[in-house]
Amino acid sequence: MSHILIVEDESIIRSALRRLLEKHDYDVQDAESVDEATSRFNLSDFNLIITDLRLPGAPGTDLIKLAGPVPVLIMTSYASLRSAVDAMKMGAVDYIAKPFDHEEMLNSVHNILAHRQTPASVQELSEDQDNGQTRIIGSCKPMQDLFKRISKVAKTDATVLVQGESGTGKELAARAIHEQSDRASAPMICVNCAAIPETLIESELFGHEKGAFTGANSQRNGLIEAADGGTLFLDEIGELPLEAQARLLRFLQEGEIRRVGSVQSKKVNVRLIAATHRNLKSLAKSGDFREDLYYRLYVMELRIPPLRERGEDIIEIAQQMLASTAKRMGEGELRFSHHALKTMLRYQWPGNVRELENAIERAVILTDDSEITTELLGLDIDSPDLAALEQNYISQTPSSRQGSKDNSGAAGLSLDDYFQRFVLENQDSMSETELAKKLGVSRKCLWERRQKLGIPRKPKK
Predict the structure, then answer these.
(1) Contact at 8 Å (CB) between 424 and 435?
(2) What is the CA radius of gyration of the chain?
(3) Whole-prediction pTM value?
């Protein structure tokens, strides 16, 4: 069980976050301030510290140094997003904007703890254990061509446009360029243009002067200025509003920015890498993206191939992901079945590497033995599971639906009733694979149906 410390002075937020984390099996302690946290607890006993940026007395960023190797997640509001970036420069592992979504918080906590437990966690693009540099896994020709392009463009200051489907690893490709460039020792600031409200995007990128708009109570630097000397990565640049596109174009042409509400410009030395899954050329023709900005970005294009075009790379990536996930979850050595390997090569992977990672994690959770089957991965692309379950139910007579242990009162059961009763009556004598086979569905469908109906699995012995 992971131990988490919450440091938050607002009691409502503190108690709500504690309940959320405890509900998901985390061991949680809390404090109102940095002083209380350090006086009551030994910070090194925790696996993660979640702290508000602004606290009475010392700021939450003080915990970054006090906690040593323990990762610190900063909570902040959009109004202080600039401070959150500064906190990450000081060593915070991540930040999350308030008010936060529960799923967003849980995903962030899970990812931080998983990364801490497996520092060399394997992804399609992952960190090299020896030198901390981003390395790319792949032997196919499209990936080899990508390696060469990254190596060449990294030695320049040219603007780069990274294109590829969602989940292919565009941000990590950008990191590889930054790390191989002369700017590697300077900051790399990453911005998801789709994640910042349209009304705030110009202020976040370019900064603003005091009084520039309602709520601008002080002067603030923008994210472009924060990347001075380094690299700015703009993900999903196709979502950038037209007004912000005009400002960005001036920055690219003149190498200078002007804060919102200011009449003075400031020179900055920033290398821009942009990424999108959309067709910018088509957007430019339709007027949804500035054509002059498109051609200014289109200095060097890198295309990240989708997973379905990478052939045997899929197996290499999957094998390393499986080993990493099994280790993180405390499982023994696992392997893919021959059919699972063949199915992975046939499958189209619309979610790319992200989908592969999720499929493997789900399979490791569900497995009862050392073999990962196609059903566990949920890639049985030829059988519609729910339809099969319904057909299996419809085709049976009322007497044959009455369960194997108790024949009373089963006639007239709904599909959900039938499923629930069958599973509860037979799970002690059948494995998950046998249950799924008897019901005529895959292991994935059985698991999803359990989740929907709230049917617990029998504990592993």
Answers:
(1) no
(2) 26
(3) 0.56
